[in-house]
Design a protein that fits this description.
Layout (H helix, E strand, L loop, with lengths): L2 H18 L5 H24 L5 H5 L3 E5 L5 E5 L7 H10 L6 H16 L5 H22 L4 H5 L1 H22 L9 H5 L12 E3 L11 E4 L5 E3 H12 L1 H10 L5 E2 L9 E2 L5 E2 L31 H10 L1
Antiparallel strand pairs: 1-2, 3-4, 4-5, 6-7, 7-8
Helix pairs in contact: 1-2, 1-8, 2-5, 2-6, 5-6, 6-8
């Protein structure tokens, strides 16, 4: 067993031991160790994909072109930095390997949340982290051609139990929204997450309620209570977070916008046009310049004019 693989296995096992401890202070350590172990295991998978190659060349995050004595370009490592969670999915894709990017992203978010917002509710967050990590761990061991039960021993059994309990709780939470008439396929398929801790263990207080605007929700992970507005805002933000992150980075068009009518971040221009909270829909063109009206250019004072034309006309007055 090489050092990279051994460290990966041991880190995951220690993370699970920390999770099982009754000492609340070890909750943060549990996620840190689990996170580190998965990253190490992913690096091991990359190294095994190209046997006989220097691991540094496989795992380096940065390269630079160097001219050899034979006047040929060779790419060499440009720093000691290796791939991290932010670049892992791309490196896997470059190697023709598949990894559960969504589960990886969720795990990274939980880890960041616990690092920056450590609370007494952290054990619930750790349980979510363990549950979210299981498909990633299973996939990585599969790529390494190793049975996780053989590698992790009792830690794997614990992970399976945690995942089963978490999935059971998540299903029970989803059932409380079964009678809601969402009036939107996008909203119905959006994950319901707690706006305070990000957990998906969100339940409706009144399971008989069918009105999407009368929801009283409660997070079973941190206990936070919130209304339908907060629920819809957080659900849409979660559903489109990856798309809107890429759009913001690459200068593309965002999916979720500020609604000109109700003022919430619930106006969609993708899949379904309009606000999924108040049902307002922008229609037509600016009455002065004929530019198509959008949530980004419409006047806050008049839904019949773009902001620029409304400004010009107000100056004329």
């Amino acid at each position: 067993m090489n050092d990279l693989y051994a460290n990966a296995v041991q880190s995951i096992q220690i993370g699970i031991e920390d999770y099982q401890a009754t000492d609340q202070k070890r909750a943060l350590s549990a996620v840190r160790n689990l996170y580190a172990g998965i990253l190490l295991l992913a690096k091991e998978v990359l190294v095994r994909a190209v046997p006989g190659t220097d691991p540094k060349k496989v795992l380096s995050a940065r390269y630079k072109p160097v001219l050899t004595n034979a006047n040929r370009i060779e790419y060499v490592e440009d720093s000691q930095q290796t791939v991290d969670f932010g670049t892992l999915a791309k490196r896997f894709a470059d190697f023709g390997l598949k990894i559960d990017q969504k589960a990886l992203s969720d795990l990274n978010r939980i880890r960041n949340d616990i690092e920056h917002f450590y609370t007494s509710q952290s054990h619930s967050a750790v349980r979510a982290a363990v549950a979210k990590s299981l498909p990633v761990v299973a996939g990585l061991f599969r790529l390494a051609r190793v049975e996780p039960s053989n590698a992790l021993g009792n830690a794997w059994s614990v992970m399976l139990e945690v995942k089963a309990v978490y999935d059971q709780e998540l299903l029970a939470c989803k059932e409380t929204f079964k009678k809601i008439d969402w009036l939107s396929a996008t909203l119905e398929s959006s994950p319901r997450v707690c706006p305070q801790c990000g957990s998906e263990l969100v339940a409706q207080g009144d399971e008989k309620n069918s009105d999407r605007q009368s929801i009283d929700a409660r997070c079973r992970a941190c206990g936070h209570e919130f209304d339908s507005e907060s629920l819809i805002v957080s659900a849409l933000a979660k559903k489109f977070e990856d798309d809107d992150f890429l759009a913001a980075r690459d200068g593309g068009s965002m999916s979720v916008h500020h609604c000109p009518e109700c003022g919430m971040e619930t106006y969609l221009t993708t899949d379904e046009e309009g606000c999924l909270l108040c049902e307002f829909v922008l229609e037509g063109e600016c009455g002065r310049c004929s530019e198509t009206l959008t949530p980004d250019n419409v006047s806050a004072d008049s839904h019949l004019l773009c902001a620029y034309c409304n400004h010009v006309m107000s100056k004329d007055d």
